[in-house]
Design goal:
Elements: E1 3-4, E2 14-20, E3 27-28, E4 34-35, E5 39-47, E6 50-55, E7 67-69, E8 85-90, E9 100-107, E10 120-125, E11 130-136, E12 144-152, E13 158-167, H1 172-175
Antiparallel strand pairs: 1-13, 2-8, 2-10, 3-4, 5-6, 5-9, 7-8, 9-12, 10-11, 12-13
Amino acid sequence: MHVLRDDSGTGFELVTMTLGWEPVRRDRWWGGAVRDIDMNAAAMLFSGDGLVDVVYHESLTSQDGSIHHLGDSITGEGPRKADDEIISVDLTRLSPQVTTVIFLVTTYTGHTFAEIDNAFCRLVDSVSATEIARYELHGASHTGLVMGALRRTVDGVWEFHEIDEGIAAQHPVDAAPLLGRYLR
């Protein structure tokens, strides 16, 4: 597992997780009906190994107001040209009880990543505007991805731990029981 700190080595303060995909590719079902591809970005907040909050398309702001999901895209068309869903995280305002934030991508419509064109997710250091990590989501047979985790060290510094592992999940509720192994 690769661990990253900001350029100054003091830890991250503000980060943005983005998810993007192409809206044009569609799945043909019986009788020629068309079904859109709907992907979701989520931030799962943990205190130790206990889930304390989730920010995603059905809950757009964390309880402490430090994390915001800027809105659900159900078609792959988002607020920025390539970024269809955006989650902003102010780590300086995050509740002291939160020790880990796991970033997750799922396909709500059940498509595998092999069925989706030009899908990606990335994490950006919002202070320096540099991309911390980027993952191309194509060719895989899973419906979810554990992108990575921001972890608070004992001295209060936030580090990003790359995970990049596929899971079988269409929604954060499906993923929650699968995330315990990434908290250690």
